[in-house]
Design brief:
Number of helices: 16
Number of domains: 5
Distance between the termini: 53 Å
Number of strands: 33
CATH superfamily of the largest domain: P-loop containing nucleotide triphosphate hydrolases
Strand order of the largest sheet: 7-8-6-9-10-11
Strand content: 25-35%
CATH architecture of the largest domain: 3-Layer(aba) Sandwich
CATH class of the largest domain: Alpha Beta
CATH topology of the largest domain: Rossmann fold
C-alpha cells in the first residue's frame, strides 16, 4: 500500500536554498532533483511554484500554494459555466482592403440608434451594436494585431471571428493568417464574402479557394458558415449577424455579473488631460468606479469610465468595453486585468508579479514554441533571426558554434545581434527591426524588456541548458518552413463522354493515352491552349469494376471532384502531388 504523501505549503516564488529548507533536506538534494528534470539552478536561483511542485512530487510531498499567494498566480479567462447569458465578443479579420472597416462602419451606423451613433466622438477600440434586441460586442481594432496580442495571454477572449474575403479578389496572405490564428485559438469562424455588388465579384471562385483551406460551405456538404455581404447596400448583413448570434448561442456564453471584474486590455493611450488611459473589456463580473485592480505587473484604481459613446458610466458588466483612467504606468494591449479587494492587495500583488517577471524563466513550454512556429510560418520566412544573450563569453561562443551547425536545405538560423548580460529593451528593439527572436542563456529579463516584448509581439526564450536551447531552435526552424509542393506528371487522357455532371462532382469516361493514373491524383483539363479547370480523382472504374489504376490503351470511368465545365475531346493531364519537409544538412 502506497504511503500517503506529506502535505506542504509553498510560496509563489522562492530560492533553491529556501525550497531545500522547506523539505528539510540538503540543498544538493534539491539541485539534483532539478537537474534530473532538465533544470540547471544554483543555491540562490529563484524557483517558481510550478517548478517547486515538480521537485516536491519527486520527494514525496503534496504541495499547495500559500493562501496569500493564490491570488498572485496569473488570472485566467476561463469559461464560466454558470451565470447569466452574456453578449458575444466578435473580432473581424481578413486581408487589408477587403472591407473590414466598411463592414464595421455599416453595422455601427445601422445597428446603433442614429442619436447614439452620431454621438460617437472617440475611438476606444470596441463598441456594442444591437440586433434583434440583443447586444454584440465588436473589437474595432486592427484585427490581427489585437487578436494576436490578446491571444498571447493564452486565453480565448474572442467568441466568434468574422473572416472577411473580398468577392473580387479572393484569398490573400492575410486571409490565410487570419484562418490560422482563429484555428489556433479554437475560435469559430463565420465567413463574410464582401463587395458582392462589384462587377468583378466571383463568389463561386472565393468559395472554391476557401474550400482549399478547409472552409467548406454548407451547400457543398460542409459545415462552415459563409454569407455574401455588401457594406454599401447592406445586403446580407442581417443574415451575417443572425449567423454570428447562432454561432455564439451554440457556445452558451455565460458570466457572473456580481463577481469581481476580470478582463483584458484592448487599447492604451496617453491623454494630456487625464494621463494614461486604457480600454478594458470585461469578461466576467462587473467593473465599478473605485475598484482596485492589477493589470500585468501594475496596480491601479478606477477613477473614471466612459463607454464607446463617450458617456460617463459608473459600472461595466460582462462583454462591455469602457475607457478607464487610473493607471500610474501605461499597461500593454492584451494584458489581463483583475479587480482585487483593496489598493494594498493590488500593490502587493503587482509587486509579487514584478518579482516573478525578473526571475529567470526555467523552461520554454510547447505552446510557446507552437505559437512562435505558426507566426514564422505565416510570415513565409525561411530564416530564423536571433538576438542572442548569454551569461559569459564562453557560453556565448559555445552556443554560436552549435547554432552554426543547424542548417536545412531551405533555411538557417542567423544571429543578428549578440552580447553578454541580461536581456534589455535594446535587445527587444534589435529583434523588432529584424522580426527576430530574443534568446537568452542563464540570464534574466528586465521587466521593461518583458513589457516591450509583449507590446511589440517579440518572443523571448530563455534557457539554462544548451542542448534544450539548440533542440528548440532546431524544431522551430524545421517546422516553420512551409513544406515544398512537388508535382510529378503521371499520365494523360482524352475525355470521351460525361456520364454525370453535378456541380462539384463528375463521372467522366476517358481513354488513357500515357502513364499510370491512381486515385488521389490531381487532374487538369485543357481545351486547346485554354485551361478549363482541375479536380481530384476519387474513384476509377473499368467496365463495372473498381480498379486501383488506369493504364494506356483502355477506356476508364473516373469519378472526379471538380466544378470545371468539361466537354468531350478535352485533354486531361494527371499529376501526383507530394509535400517535402525541410531537412537538416
Amino acid at each position: 500500500m502506497n504511503e500517503e504523501k506529506k502535505k506542504i505549503v509553498l510560496p509563489n516564488l522562492m530560492t533553491v536554498n529556501e525550497l531545500a529548507e522547506s523539505f528539510s533536506v540538503p540543498v544538493t538534494v534539491v539541485i539534483k532533483q532539478l537537474l534530473s528534470n532538465g533544470v540547471l539552478a544554483t543555491i540562490n536561483d529563484n524557483i517558481d511554484f510550478e517548478t517547486a511542485a515538480i521537485v516536491a512530487d519527486d520527494l514525496g510531498y503534496d504541495v499547495s500554494p500559500r493562501e496569500e499567494d493564490v491570488s498572485s498566480l496569473a488570472p485566467e479567462l476561463k469559461r464560466v459555466e454558470t451565470g447569466e447569458p452574456r453578449p458575444p465578443i466578435v473580432t473581424v479579420m481578413g486581408h487589408v482592403d477587403h472591407g473590414k472597416t466598411s463592414l464595421l462602419d455599416y453595422i455601427r451606423k445601422t445597428k446603433i440608434t442614429e442619436k447614439e451613433s452620431g454621438g460617437i466622438t472617440q475611438h476606444i477600440g470596441a463598441y456594442q451594436a444591437e440586433f434583434k434586441g440583443r447586444k454584440i460586442t465588436f473589437l474595432d481594432t486592427p484585427g490581427h494585431e489585437a487578436f494576436s496580442a490578446i491571444r498571447a495571454q493564452g486565453a480565448k477572449v474572442t467568441d466568434v471571428v468574422i473572416l472577411v474575403v473580398a468577392a473580387d479578389e479572393g484569398i490573400k496572405p492575410q486571409t490565410v493568417e487570419a484562418i490560422e490564428l482563429a484555428r489556433a485559438a479554437n475560435v469559430p469562424i463565420v465567413t463574410a464574402i464582401t463587395k458582392i455588388d462589384r462587377p468583378e465579384a466571383n463568389i463561386q471562385r472565393v468559395e472554391q479557394e476557401l474550400a482549399a483551406h478547409n472552409i467548406i460551405t454548407e451547400k457543398w456538404g460542409g459545415k462552415d458558415v459563409i454569407v455574401g455581404v455588401s457594406a454599401k447596400s447592406g445586403e446580407g448583413v442581417d443574415e451575417l449577424l443572425d449567423l454570428v448570434l447562432l454561432t455564439a448561442d451554440l457556445q452558451e456564453l455565460k458570466a457572473q455579473k456580481q463577481a469581481p471584474a476580470l478582463g483584458f486590455v484592448i487599447e492604451t493611450k496617453h491623454d494630456p488631460k487625464v494621463g494614461y488611459t486604457a480600454t478594458l473589456l470585461v469578461h466576467n463580473g462587473t467593473l465599478r468606479i473605485g475598484d482596485a485592480f492589477v493589470v500585468g505587473v501594475r496596480a491601479g484604481k478606477v477613477k473614471s469610465m466612459e463607454d464607446y459613446l463617450g458617456k460617463r458610466v459608473k459600472e461595466a458588466g460582462p462583454s462591455v468595453p469602457v475607457r478607464v483612467t487610473g493607471f500610474g504606468v501605461m499597461p500593454n494591449a492584451g494584458e489581463l486585468f483583475e479587480v482585487v479587494e483593496s489598493e494594498k492587495v493590488a500593490r502587493d500583488l503587482a509587486m509579487s508579479k514584478a518579482k516573478q517577471a525578473t526571475a529567470r524563466r526555467i523552461s520554454v513550454t510547447s505552446s510557446d514554441l507552437s505559437k512562435l512556429t505558426a507566426q514564422i510560418r505565416a510570415s513565409r520566412s525561411s530564416q530564423i533571426a536571433v538576438v542572442l544573450k548569454a551569461d559569459m563569453q564562453g557560453s556565448l561562443e559555445a552556443i554560436k558554434n552549435q547554432l552554426a551547425k543547424i542548417r536545412t536545405d531551405k533555411g538557417e538560423i542567423k544571429i543578428i545581434s549578440e552580447g553578454i548580460g541580461n536581456i534589455s529593451e535594446s535587445d527587444v528593439l534589435s529583434a523588432e527591426g529584424e522580426k527576430a527572436i530574443v534568446v537568452g542563456f542563464k540570464v534574466d529579463v528586465a521587466p521593461s524588456a518583458t513589457s516591450m516584448a509583449k507590446k511589440d509581439r517579440i518572443q523571448i526564450l530563455t534557457y539554462d541548458i544548451i542542448y534544450n536551447l539548440t533542440d528548440d531552435l532546431t524544431k522551430i526552424l524545421l517546422e516553420s518552413i512551409e513544406p515544398e509542393k512537388v508535382e510529378t506528371q503521371v499520365g494523360k487522357a482524352t475525355v470521351l463522354k460525361i456520364f454525370r455532371d453535378d456541380r462539384n462532382e463528375k463521372i467522366v469516361g476517358m481513354k488513357v493515352v500515357s502513364g499510370r493514373i491512381t486515385i488521389g491524383n490531381v487532374v487538369r483539363f485543357t481545351r486547346g491552349e485554354e485551361e478549363v479547370g482541375e479536380g481530384t480523382v476519387k474513384l476509377i472504374k473499368h467496365i463495372a469494376e473498381e480498379v486501383g489504376e488506369a493504364t494506356p490503351g483502355t477506356d476508364f470511368g473516373f469519378l472526379i471532384a471538380t466544378s470545371a465545365k468539361i466537354q468531350p475531346d478535352d485533354m486531361a493531364e494527371f499529376v501526383k502531388v507530394d509535400y517535402r519537409k525541410a531537412k537538416l544538412i
